């Protein structure tokens, strides 16, 4: 028998309790204009794409917007390091232990963005004039099409009073919810009943698909952490092998920081790998780098431990996370039973 929608909700309930979705948007004026053949006084029918490429051209120097590009890149990196892609990219799922740190970092980046925007808006007038002077100089070599090009470029610059509207930094936190309740009012007309039946069927189908999507999301999140563990172990092994001075303290610190990060991202409860990592920390990260460089056989012990860690993570990544998904959903089930 197929599970009913109310039986399928525990998995969703558990997801909602263990984290939130975050969506960030960094928007700024890109300072580009897509030129067409007409902008240069050319007949499109006689322009060979093999010889002439127009496309997007910069209205202002690249470095004028470099601060915004850097902030945008840091925002993306910050969010990705603290979250998992959720259901095809509608947002990023942030486990609760990472939410506070993520919000603090995004708040700092938001303040940097605000400061950069104020500086850019304040200097926009002179920047525009300098850029137009460069364009006029460049347009001198276009003969009869120069006036048309300059007019196109001038019209491509936003008015000074509107430029600030082209900049925005937004962070939104939200949670997914089950489809609309299936319960009906006690008294209904026939038409209302038929409409409610249609709505019920649609909601039941949506719930089934949501259940499948959540199952896949949890499996993918578990696999990604396992793969990241294997990748890190491999990178550290390569670092140690390629170092003339043996083990460095920053290498050990990197391993310790990764284990802390894993614990905060392990919302699905991959206890097997978490226990493996904690054992690795107890057995191999209580020594200093100097100990590994000076004590006989110590470096070999670390290398062996890293190889075992990598092999375990690879084996787990290739396995099935069905048991983790099953245990994960039980949390929501217990809560629903308690309040039912």
Q: What is this entry, summarized?
A:
The chain has 340 residues and is α+β, with helices and mostly antiparallel strands. The protein has helices at 5-18, 66-81, 96-122, 124-139, 146-156, 190-242, 249-265, 271-284, 289-294, 298-318, 322-339, and strands at residues 19-27, 32-35, 55-58, 84-86, 91-95, 168-174. The chain has two domains: 11-174, no CATH class; 222-330, no CATH class.
Structure description:
The chain has a 4-stranded antiparallel beta sheet. Residues about 1-10, about 40-55, about 180-185 and about 330-340 have low confidence and may be disordered. The chain is an alpha+beta fold. The chain is flat. It folds into 2 domains: about 10-175, no CATH class; about 220-330, no CATH class. It has helices at about 5-20, 65-80, 95-120, 125-140, 145-155, 190-240, 250-265, 270-285, 290-295, 300-320, 320-340; strands at about 20-25, 30-35, 55-60, 85, 90-95, 170-175. It has 11 helices and 6 strands. The two termini are about 20 Å apart.
Q: How much beta, percentage-wise?
A: 5-15%
Largest beta-sheet details = 4 strands, antiparallel
Secondary structure: number of strands: 6
For this entry, what is the oligomeric state of its chains? single chain
Order of helices and strands: HEEEHEEHHHEHHHHHH
**Helix fraction bin:** 55-70%
Domain module tally: 2
What is the distance, rounded to the nearest whole angstrom, between the alpha carbons of the first and last residues? 22 Å
Given as residue ranges, the uncertain stretches (5+ residues, pLDDT < 50) are 1-8, 42-55, 182-187, 332-340
C-alpha Rg (nearest Å): 28 Å
The residue-averaged pLDDT reads 82
- C-alpha geometry: flat
Secondary-structure content class: alpha+beta
């Amino acid at each position: 028998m197929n599970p009913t929608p109310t039986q399928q909700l525990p998995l969703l309930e558990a997801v909602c309790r263990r984290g939130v979705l975050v969506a960030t948007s960094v928007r700024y004026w890109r300072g580009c204009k897509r030129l067409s053949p007409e902008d240069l006084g050319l007949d499109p029918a006689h322009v060979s794409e093999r010889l002439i490429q127009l496309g997007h051209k910069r209205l202002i120097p690249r470095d004028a917007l470099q601060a915004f590009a850097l902030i945008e890149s840091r925002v993306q990196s910050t969010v990705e390091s603290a979250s998992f892609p959720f259901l095809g990219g509608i947002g990023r799922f942030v486990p609760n232990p990472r939410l506070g740190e993520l919000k603090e970092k995004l708040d700092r980046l938001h303040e940097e963005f605000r400061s950069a925007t104020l500086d850019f808006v304040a200097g926009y007038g002179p920047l525009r004039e300098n850029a137009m002077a460069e364009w006029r100089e460049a347009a001198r070599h276009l003969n009869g099409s120069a006036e048309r090009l300059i007019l196109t470029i001038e019209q491509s610059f936003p008015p000074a009073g509107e430029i600030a509207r082209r900049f925005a930094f937004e962070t939104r936190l939200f949670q997914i919810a089950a489809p609309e309740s299936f319960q009906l009012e006690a008294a209904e007309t026939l038409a209302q009943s038929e409409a409610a039946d249609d709505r019920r069927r649609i909601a039941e189908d949506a719930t089934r698909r949501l259940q499948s999507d959540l199952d896949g999301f949890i499996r993918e999140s578990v696999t990604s952490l396992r793969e990241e563990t294997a990748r890190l172990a491999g990178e550290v092994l390569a670092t140690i092998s390629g170092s003339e001075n043996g083990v460095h303290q920053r290498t050990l610190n990197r391993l310790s920081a990764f284990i802390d990060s894993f614990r905060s991202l392990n919302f699905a409860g991959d206890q097997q790998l978490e226990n493996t990592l904690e054992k690795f920390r107890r057995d191999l990260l209580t020594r200093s780098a100097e100990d590994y460089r000076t004590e006989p056989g110590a470096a070999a012990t670390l290398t062996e431990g890293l190889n075992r860690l990598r092999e375990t993570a690879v084996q787990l990544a290739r396995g099935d996370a069905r048991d983790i998904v099953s245990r994960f959903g039980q949390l929501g089930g217990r809560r629903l039973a308690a309040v039912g």
